[in-house]
Structures are given as structure tokens and as C-alpha cells.
Amino acid sequence: MGLIKRWLHERQRQRRHAARRAVPAVAESITLDWEQSGGLERRAYTSYELYAEHQKAKLSKRNLANYDPRFIDALQPRLAALDLKPASAVLCLAARSGAECKAFIALGHFAIGIDLNPGPENRHVVVGDFHALQFADASVDVVYTNSLDHAFELPRIFAEVRRVLKPDGRFIAEIVSPEQRGPGDFEATWWSSVDVVIAAITKAGFSLTTRSEFEMPWQGIQAVFRL
Known about the structure:
The chain is of the alpha/beta class and 227 residues long. It has helices at 3-21, 25-28, 48-57, 67-80, 99-106, 154-164, 194-203, and strands at residues 34-37, 40-43, 89-93, 110-115, 125-127, 140-145, 165-176, 189-191, 207-214, 220-226. The chain is globular and about 45 Å long.
């Protein structure tokens, strides 16, 4: 192995080790009961801190190398069909490695993502919590998320989306269909139907403008809202 290849291999090994070391072992294999309320279920975390550490652990358990290109290929046409304002300022919530940001950027928008654990050297996603966004009031044109199933408290997230959106902004929520599957190891919130989530968003003060089904890379509903 040449010196450059050896150096790159060692750097990758160090990054993987650092990522594993940053996550408490208790969060990697957490098992908790679920609490039900009005068609929604929540994982019964004993504290917000435990929730946050559990969600941080998911990146070390997911290989996104194959998933991200498929996700971008599927998402980009859906976004293009929305006819968003050119060069919109877009905030992507719980964006992991930033595939959704790349899809928006490819369409000419400015996009940044936040995640509790974006991983090392992520060019598209910064550390942030969608329950308490670090951005100014009325500062973004579009908020996008497909991660409401990783929420600790949906009303807090919707309040933050309302706060950062401009008056004519749009909230794009892509919501997994529970008919396709049940919650996995890292979901924190689940629902009996997509309509339950849409009702919760409208209750928070948003108006549904469009709703469409999609099949890739998983089955769900894209719901677009205005304030």
C-alpha cells in the first residue's frame, strides 16, 4: 500500500472510531415502550437527553453510500415539480449526510441542513436540533423534512418551522406511509396514518396546498404547506 493510500486508510479508520466513541453505548441498543395518543405513538424516553443520544447513534448504524444517490434521483424531480421561487433559501431538518440539500442545490437553491449528528466533515449539514433551531425569525423560504418520525415532540418542531419561515414560505413534509412498514430501531414518533400527521401540521397553523404520493426510495406522501 502506497503512502497516500495508507494515510487515507488511517484517516478513515480514525473517523469511524471517533464517531463510535462519541455515542454512548446505552443509546445504540435502547428498547423502550411506546405511548399512544390520538393516532400518534411516541417512544417513552425517560429524558430528552436520552432521546438525543439515541438519535445521534443512528448515523453509525446506517450506510448511506448507496441510499443517498437513489434518494437524490427520486427527490429532485419531486422538488422541481413544485415550482419553488428561484434561488430559495432552504433549511432541511434532520438531514443526516445532506442528500436532500444536494437535491435542492442541483435545482439552483441555497440549502443547508441541520442534524443532531451530521458526522465528521459534512459540507452540507451542521449540528442543530429541529426542536430549537439556531436561525433567525422569518429567514428561510422553504423548510423541508422527511424525518418527523424521529421527532421527540412534533408541536415544538412545527412552532420552530413557523418561526423561521418567511410569511410566503413553504413547509414540505415527506411522510412515510405506515402501511409500508412499522417503526424501526431509531424512530421516536409513529402514526396510524399519514392523515394524522397532516392534521397535526394544520392544527399548528399551516394550510395544506398540495398532496402527492411517491414510491421511491420509500413509499410516502409529500405534503406542502403555507402559513
